[in-house]
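Figure S4 source data
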Amino acid sequence: MNGNSCEEDIRILQNNPSPLQTKHMPGNKYNCNPSTPRSRLERLLRERELRKNRSFQQLNEGELEFSGSDSFSNDVENWGTVDEEEFMEKPRTFSDSNERQEGRPSKQRLLVVANRLPVSAVRRSVDSWQLEISVGGLVSALLGVKEFDARWIGWAGVNVSDDIGQRTLTKSLAEKRCIPVFLDEEIVQQYYNGYCNNILWPLFHYLGLPQEDRLATTRSFQSQFDAYKKANQLFADVVNNIYQEGDVVWCHDYHLMFLPQCLKRYNSNMKVGWFLHTPFPSSEIHRTLPSRSELLRSVLAADLVGFHTYDYARHFVSACTRILGFEGTPEGVENQGKLTRVAAFPIGIDSERFIRALELPQVQDHIKELKERFAGRKVMLGVDRLDMIKGIPQKILAFEKYLEENPNWRDKVVLLQIAVPTRTDVSEYQKLTSQVHEIVGRINGRFGTLTAVPIHHLDRSLDFHALCALYAVTDVALVTSLRDGMNLVSYEFVACQASKKGVLILSEFAGAAQSLGAGAILVNPWNITEVAASIGYALNMPADEREKRHQLNFMHVTSHTSQEWAATFVSELNDTIVEAQLRTCQIPPSLPIRDAVDSYIQSSNRLIILGFNSTLTAPRDSMERRGAQIREMELKLHPDLKEPLKKLCDDPLTTIVVLSGSDRSVLDDNFGEYNMWLAAENGMFLRLTTGEWMTTMPEHLNMDWVDSVKHVFEYFTERTPRSQFELRETSLVWNYKYADIEFGRLQARDMLQHLWSGPISNAAVDVVQGGRSVEVRAVGVTKGAAIDRILGEIVHNKGMKAPIDYVLCIGHFLQKDEDVYTFFEPELPFEPPPPIPRAKVADAVRASMSQFSPGKSGSKVARFRKQRSLSAIERRVTNNLTTGGWWPTTRDRMALHEGSSVLDLKGDHYFSCAVAKKRSNARYLLGSSSAVVALLKDLGEYSVSS
């Protein structure tokens, strides 16, 4: 690896953390620009400051500002929309080219991919289209973010099958920076109405999967999921056609969960973010979905995954760990070194637009009219889609209970409920409408009078001005969602309450409760009694408390706007790419197979060291463990390796060593028929398959700690279902690979506290934590410490005279055991000259042994600094060459002269490879045990039988 090049890349990336930031001259590690962001937090803070400065500069230069919706947003996510006239006019922020403005860098292109475009198309003739503003969309969130050159990709809401219609519609939409995705009627029915709205949406809102006949459900799931994947691929094809290097692709919502994977397959360097606007359910709910694993893996292909709240993000990470078996970290989800960042980004509204709207004459007229209409009565307000998740019946029943218990308030309070109809053709929604109408009629008939009724119910939406006026005169807003991604009605209400300072009663199951919980009254909408009591508390709340609660909410709503949400997400995505590039610089490259094979052919005395578990075993998907746990507990050699291993073992020029942490019996069972060396328990036991086991353990190894550690392992095995522990002669291993992952981690943490405070507090042991295991072993028991002694035995047994000129070391080793990789690395001198191979150091020691002169050789050995710790034999030789007075025993002389010093490696004849593990001290990487199989097959083709 070219270390200098990598360091230079890191410096450049640190100096240019994002395309949105200004460039700096690259510094070096001794003389860095003090303004260079050194950490992720510094980069994001600087990006935020630059964003604020740009916004301030644009306002001073008189750039246009664009507002959001003129009507209540009644889509699933409560996204805002924009005024049709404003959107249909070509905004100055969407420039037709990426040319630089004077003194200002060009804008980064942002490809926003959502199921629907911000406009809908209505066909007027064969070659003519009328564009109408859509209900919902991301326009209000992104128009205010002026540093991006945004394009919109999505379905236009109309099926166009003829070529002329598609061409003319594409041309019309291009003027609005929109690119259509054309879906035929069958795909829309199966993908949108079927899989998205009938399966994913109910599941994500905790309504469960549709209850149908099991066989019919299975067929329906599969056909709808196939249509879902096909539709996502159509979206990906459109993105790929317009994608340019450096673009940011932002995918939205559950309609496009398969899209990140499709995009990354096309271009692995594409910047891809994915955001969910609904709740993400707990892993126990998500695991009921037949396609659960495919969808999770597809989303994880994105660089950054965003949710409205931390709860949803935590549920997603939990699903990935429990269902896929991946590693959940504070940053996100990690799989074999690939990190997908997962974070919470609460969306907001364009609060300034609502605040400004209150000053408009038409809004003031509405306010005056409403005040006169409801004079002398407190106004309670509910604004919802008429949907099962909005809790409208629960809200009305709680209001009824309050009127029952407080008869003195019956003439003093009115509930205005705006219920926007949706999916009126679906029977469940029709039933809900009838239920709500029945409850409202019953309550009005019970508590109403000839001149007034307690509930005013509207089955329609209001225009923007009327809605703002209604927010402004409201005393108590009542949001009782049973499950809601965010619910921005609560934000809109707070933005319009500068003078009234009304009270917000908010469901704890709405995402907005995470943001507005400090100032709102949180309720469980299923608890009718609690909601009724909260209504009474809100109506009688003192003015000073209303003031404090409102200020808390108002401060959040005005500072966490929709524009800030969009800018923050894209900024985090850019920074995530920077961090990924920094990590890539530290990841070893893939093994150059051709070079490894060529060096093998050219060499005359080869040593191949192989790990066992996850290296020579057959790969298994994590989900297969559920049905094959007993089989996987018994490690088995990959069946495709039997023939190439035999060829390599029969080659007289090749020595094979299987170096494993497993027990001796495991290696005997798998490799007894091959002519090779077996090193069990991290090299502490060694044998040639034609001979007997011998020990290579250091003398005076203290094992008094074993019994006490064993008792601790037994205790935690009993209390952790599906865990197990293994007692070896030099170590104990507790494995929770098959246990519940999160529970296993908690138990492992508890176990470590018990061990450190008790059994091993004063013992000479090392505690090694694996991915799903805890191992306690004696100090010095590592593969790297054992390899020198193993080499000595091999050299002595074979009577090896020719130097070893080729070493291939492959394994999936624990971090503690990766010293075996560095054992064969060349040594570095004190001074800058080129590295001196380890063989020359050994030659110096060997020369000193044959021409023993402490004064002469001592200074020669002392010139070299070791990259690894010396073996015990080398330490004794080196120390006594400088001090005199010690001569090695016969066995030590053999091990030194015939073991370590027999190596004569050139740098390009040593290949160390980590398998499926990107954080490693190895020189190279191999993706899986299948890649190991392919490599050994290639080497076997050039092996000569003895």
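Figure S5 source data
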Amino acid sequence: MGATENSTASSSSRPMAGTGNDTVPSSSTRPSIVNIGVLFTYNSVIGRSAKPAILAAIDDVNSDSSILHGTKFKVIFHDTNCSGFLGTVEALELIQNDVVAAIGPQSSGISHVISHVVNELQVPLLSFGSTDPTLSALQYPYFVRTTQSDYFQMYAVADLVDHHGWREVIAIFVDDDYGRNGISILGDALAKKRAKISYKAAFSPGASKSDINDVLVGVNLMESRVYVVHVNPDSGLNVFSVAKSLGMMTSGYVWIATDWLPSLLDSVQPPDPNTMNLLQGVVALRHYTPDTDLKKKFVSRWNKLKHDGTSGFNSYALYAYDSIWLAARALDVFFNEGGSISFSNDPKLQETNRSTLHLSSLRIFDGGSQYLKTILKMNFTGVSGKIQFDLDKNFVHPAYDVLNILGTGPRRVGYWTNYSGLSIVNPEIIYTKPPNTSTSNQRLYSIIWPGETASTPRGWVFPNNGKPLRIAVPNRVSYKDFVAKDRNPPGVRGFCVDIFEAAINLLPYAVPRTYELFGDGKRNPEYSELVNQVAENKFDAAVGDITITTNRTKIVDFTQPYLESGLVVVAPVKEAKSSPWAFLKPFTLPMWLVTAGFFLFVGAVVWILEHRLNHEFRGPPRKQIMTIFWFSFSTMFFSHRENTVSTLGRFVLIIWLFVVLIINSSYTASLTSILTVQQLTSRIEGIDSLISSNDPIGVQDGSFAWKYLTNELNIAESRLVKLKNQDDYGTALRLGPKAGGVAAIVDELPYIELFMSGSNCQYRTVGQEFTKSGWGFAFPRDSPLAVDLSTAILQLSENGDLQKYRKKWLATGECTMQINEEDANRLSLTSFWGLFLISGIACFIALTVFFLRVCCQFRKFVPEGEEVGEVEEIESATPRRTIHTTSFKDLLEFVDRKEAEIKQILRRKSSDKNHASPSSDVQCHSVP
């Protein structure tokens, strides 16, 4: 089967690889000829493009004396004919020729088999077409991939899916190593984006159109409309031909093809109109190769390279060309580092008497390990771009073109790199900037989808298999206003059902559905079990009063909450006994004491400021004390009869009256609240007091509150009592804990509001709502219907329909207010210390100004040179006489004098000074 061909093609203008790794020939002996094996399928899309590229590369290498310095490559071609068995036989025959490297094969399945052979004989295998990611495993050390790995391509597909908001795809693939392993990586990549492969539709290699038809008919009955096609280029068009005949290339469908499709289209020039008609709206990925001068020169000489049966140019031709150059450049370095070409027998392959296979002709390449290391260290620029390997033996800087097939050919709508994801910027520019893989920065140009629509398809439909959605509805025995069994279609009714039906009617597509009751109708069902059955796909959805909790969101998807909820405590209430001292409750004891003290303090300050000017604040001591007390407390009612005449007194009084106004208003409001709201009270004040007590607690049967109280609040189960309906609620609360009832009930707010609306205000919620949650509709994880219904529920909320349905079903009474604790209405000093501080500062300023003024008068009254003391004027018919004193009592007597008398004496003293001689004594005379 093998054929040996020497390279004969030549060209005067051949593209050369980059200048990296140029070396000077060593003095070691170089062989004149080195055998290179080439292994691929001639009659295939990839083979027809690869063969002329390989021949051109061999000719270019042998013609360039600066590469191998006299050593020539002798090429040995073998055709694998797309057969794993023949590929193995051909590989054995190939290696019998003592080749130093094997180029190919193009098939991942054949590469898996041949890799075991080259591993044993230590011959590097440079594959330009095997993209299976698992070939990079440590199991195949001598396998070197000289093209992009499908590992990166599948992550590019996952980014495409995530970019458009799809959560499920169907994989259509050829069931061989290439197809299975690629789709396996796709599943991992989608999982990181919270998406998944909902179904894997596989068909055998070389499957007929009838087999493919059976596969596509099956997937067309499923929910997802996003198809990822990962097949061989030689038979891949059959998938789209059958899809076209089944009407699967119309609006609403999404087709994503891997690099096999662009390789096929590029190899057929000009494109076939019939083929392009099959592919309208398909999105495909193609290996990105930069438009360097080397590539342009190679493309320009392509028509001269083609031989009989050669197809058009595609990316695999570039990788095949660079594979030869990689082998040549690495071999040159290998020689320069002292390597030599030699082969030795493998002890494991020695013939035995029973063997009819001539395995002894297979020999180990002694320098294979060194040559492999040299290959993996190479770094140069080829026609396909940068040739450099990472630690996983993959090309660095992997990138793909994102193509949209439209009209007569593909149109590039962007790029993908593992560096920054989807972008409309050229990868060469992207790699010069910091990486940016943020979801908001992923961008592509507009795509025309199948059906010639520019709007992104939803990506899913209801399964076209005649089965409507099975929707579970709780079969409640209490609070049937929320959801209950109904004799009329659709078999259920209630607030929750009306909300669900209204949201469904807002969707732009029909949702076939049937309702199934969950529960035996004798007691409320366990809602956690209902959610579990939705998670296990026993139901397609659950509609009802289902609380969104953390544990439930881990296994199902909920819609946007349509009703707010939360746990509250409801307890019986009774009238509090009237107290004759209720009028003292508005203020705390410190507040009463400070207020009384300030009344007296302000009264005393006003008396001091008014005493010298206002006759109403003068008189005997007993009368003045009574005046202070009367004036102080009369300001409480703004009924003080004494007028203030001094500026300082009025200043203090104005500020104090403002303080009194605030205090009076606060007292009145607090007393009103205490005498009205606090007429009803309960021994249970909230969840904290309920936990600290040992009284039994009522819980609705089937509610999540049971587990919340036991698991989160550590309340003993022995204290919890299950209540089935509203009658049980009322009975248990009326009996109380001492008579076999409960002290309080813990339940969700919507139930409690409905319960209290018919209780004649015998019960109230106490304390605060101690959890926050809501009710939603449950769907299996990643259900697209949950997202659409959330949007519909928001629309119902915005247009007011949610409130209309709530008024229709959930009429509530006026007894829903909470009981406030008594101390909450009592006013403490904390609320008023600022007012007292302002009043105190005003009093201090007024007193300071007053005493400074008095001291100034006193200094004028007693001139310098006299003994410090008070001078008293004695009224008599005798001549004036002067009395000198130094007692503090005299100072107080001075302060006690009227302001008018002091001013008159000071005027007389000033007049006497003007008429007296400088040596005369200053005398103070009494007022006549």
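The chain is about 40% helix and 15% strand. The longest strand covers residues 409-417.
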